[in-house]
Amino acid sequence: MKGDAYVPVYNEVSDAWYPSNRAADLLVHLNHIWNDIQTLNKLWSKDHSESNVTEKLLFKYAVIEFLSLFDPLSELLKIAINSPRLVKDQHPPWRYITKRELIETKRLAKEFWRGVAPVQQELTEIRNNIGAHREFSDLGSIQILWKRLDVKQYMAVMNAFPPLFEYLSHLNIFDWGRSLGEKDGNIIMSMFGARIVHDWDDAFDSENETV
């Protein structure tokens, strides 16, 4: 992802690159969520020695943020997989995905969701009962959920997100615009980011080629 892309809270400078299509909107949204998780992790690294309760409280919010990644990530993956293809002997689309990129995107996505599957229900219960909401329940059930708030138990699942996100961020499926200032209260945007150089060695043989 562009280092100077607009990300709410973290980068709101006037000359940042703004997302100009749905894929870029989702990329910025995911980046914002992951930045928040990293900030929570820094707080945990600094304060976790104070008490086990502090660690669990901070990690509880990391769980809420992590689960909020799933819907936008699923949508971005769908866009990537269904993006126009670079096909040999055909006029290249403005934005596209290559053969190797499609194969690797599918591989990383499958690896990520395979890791999520065994713990998704547990994480959802934590979020719904002691995280984003606090349902009134028997103390035994609440105690079990708090014991599940173990950073080490879910660390591998969370750490599988950055490689997938990093790979997606380098695909040629994003459009960006840059602000040229304001006029009558409206932001004037520049042209989209530049066209990417084509990698014909990685092109599909046909539009319907299966990978």
User: What gross morphology would you assign?
Assistant: globular
* Order of strands in the sheet with most strands: 1-2-3
**H-E order:** EHHHHHHHHEE
User: Beta-strand level of the residues, as a percent range?
Assistant: 5-15%
Largest sheet: 3 strands, antiparallel
The residue ranges in which pLDDT falls below 50 over 5 or more consecutive positions are none
Instruction: Note the total helix count.
Output: 8
Distance between the termini: 26 Å
Percentage of residues in helical conformation: 40-55%
What class do helices, strands and sheet pairing give?
mainly alpha
Word description of this protein:
This protein has a three-stranded antiparallel sheet with strand order 1-2-3. The longest helix is centred in the first third of the chain and has 26 residues, at 22-47. The model has no long low-confidence stretch (mean pLDDT 82). The chain has eight helices and three strands; from the N terminus they run βααααααααββ. With 211 residues, the chain is mainly alpha-helical. It is globular, with a radius of gyration of 21 Å. It has one domain (21-174). The chain has helices at residues 22-47, 52-67, 70-81, 99-116, 120-131, 139-148, 151-159, 161-169; strands at 17-19, 176-183, 186-189. α1 (22-47) packs antiparallel against α3, α2 (52-67) packs across α5 and α5 (120-131) packs across α6 (139-148). It starts with 16 loop residues before the first strand and ends in a 22-residue tail after the last strand. A hairpin with a 2-residue loop joins β2 (176-183) and β3 (186-189). It is 53% helix and 7% strand.
